[in-house]
Amino acid sequence: SLPVLFVGSGIASAAALLELMTLNAAEARVVRYFGLVGRTAELVTAAVVEQEAGQVERVATPLRAGPSGDLWKISKYIGIVGLALTLWPGRSRKKRTAAALCTTASSLLLRYALMSAGKASARDPQATFQQQRRQMSRVEAQDTDHHEQ
To answer: What is the extent of the structural domain holding 118?
Structure first.
């Protein structure tokens, strides 16, 4: 799910930059929908990543506590504000700019949070080991189910 998160974040960031430009009505409509897709994908897959990480407490801890956890939470809140501003009725330049700035900040904070959380997890070999072990058990269970059918 991390690749999907990064794609969604990239789409959201690209749309945010485009929203800062002067656009005609047709261009603004396309960029708005492009941004909605990216912002929604970023928020939904961030929740999926957090849920997947939560399966191993030692992996989830950096996303819940400390500096990386703070960045992660702030990123989500600002991302929700950016999405809400995009969905809010009206087409004012100020609203578009505010949504674009929130989205850009959210995407940057998300990336820094993941980088920081990844470094914290890498310093804890048990976190990596437990997550890999859990994934291997899941794959083995699927293989067993597949062969029994």
So the answer is: 2-148
Tens of pLDDT along the chain (149 residues) come to 888 999 999 999 999 999 998 889 899 889 889 989 999 999 999 999 888 877 777 777 777 888 888 999 999 999 999 999 989 988 788 988 999 999 999 999 999 998 888 787 777 666 565 555 555 565 565 666 656 65
Count of domains for the chain: 1
Tokens for 46?
């961030």
Q: What is the pTM of this model?
A: 0.76
Hey, what are 77's tokens? 């809140």
